[in-house]
Design goal:
460 residues, Rossmann fold, 6-stranded mixed sheet, 17 helices, globular, binds pyridoxal-5'-phosphate, binds zinc ion
Length: 460
Amino acid sequence: MYAFQRCIAPLCRATFDVTEVMTSCPDCGSLLDIDYEWDKLPVPKSLREFEARWSNRHNPLDYSGVWRFRDLLPFAADKDIVTIGEGQTILQQNQPVGKYVGMNPGKLYLQYEGLNPSGSFKDNGMTAASTHARMVGAKMAACASTGNTSASLAIYASTAQLFRVVVFVGSGKIAYGKLSQALDYDARTLQILGDFDDALERVREVAGERGIYLCNSVNPFRLEGQKTIMYRILESLNWQVPDWIVVPGGNLGNSSAFGKAFIELKMLGLIDRIPRLAVINAAGANTLYQLYEQRGVRWDGGMSDDGTVNQFFADMDHDQRKASTLASAIEINRPVNLKKCLRALDACDGVVRQVTDQQILDAKAQVGAGGFGCEPASGASVAGAKLLRAEGVIAPSDRVVCVLTGHQLKDPDITVAYHSGNKSLFDEKLRPLGVESAEFANSPIVVENNLQKIIEVLSR
Ligand SMILES: *Cc1c(COP(=O)(O)O)cnc(C)c1O
Ligand SMILES: [Zn+2]
């Protein structure tokens, strides 16, 4: 095998076999990457070579939107790959949302990852982590989750029947769509009396103690699968590179994976330039924004300013500041992939912005009205693109791809609270997080059970 694990810290760079199970460098504690001896691998000469797989859809590996690109994440033998047909997602040029964002006609695209089997982009990563779990013969896998990671891990475990699963959820605002998936897919579910960051800390400890396979995005194999979201975007654009990728930022696994994808494609000569990356925080969970835009923390060749980062977290603890946003999938205090995301921002000339829950829900309503529904966190990418357009950072003529990370049905409570026009629901669910209005509400019309009255309403 020409794949190995490698510590991302420039002064360490320790390497480990892909069959070793770890989620941080045992020498220095830094994050790990999956790396490859590309010169010994059969790398395609052009991205177009992947088109040959389109005619081979009876082979599950060629059908998968992740594994048809397996030459670009070659850490597993074909026989070990666990796939449930993930990655059948679509890039759609979207006129109404483009207008809302302020783009010229034809310039705004939505990459709809809600179409994955469990309804979020997480399946791109979980197919890769499940594959690795199979390679190492794991008997039990675990994750901490704001909801979608557990839904994804649970669906892979129940389909593959290779290992049992335990998911740790916090006791905050897990969306019922997501919780219902973990329960329905028969995952053992532990509700920790704490928030997501607590649940993640505990699951890391338990996994270490008990030799349980950890599937959070500190797992570097997951990020290999998530690279393919970018390959599919390029594929949909006839292998042209867009100007911007805009993505919500939570634990920063996705943004990190996107950066790695483009760094590798450029290095392999498969693309001639790298798009710019915009990572969008919720204003109530804005660690990356604070560090990158307000305090100037940068990748700096891997030597980023840990002092500033540690001080920020010390202050956060001291002031007992806790992340708080309706976009529960990105309600995270301490993003575990911070360093890798800084690397991605460096490679992609990136920017970070924060958007309020009001902006998120308005953007989400526009995405819905434009034909793709999404969950609140995904609305952040569209709200962020709109902000960057207003600032003039994104030009109206740029080609912009907003990643819609999760399906609309994940979190129907918030959608109904926004649209229904029910004041008490609005006051209970949305107002406490600073949402004042529902500009794009599409409220149901109450009408008497009477033909004449219904006709009257319809002719208004
Ligand atoms: C997990 C998740 C995110 C955050 O992604 P990160 O890789 O943790 O930054 C955003 N949106 C949805 C729907 C998610 O499930
Ligand atoms: Zn190290």
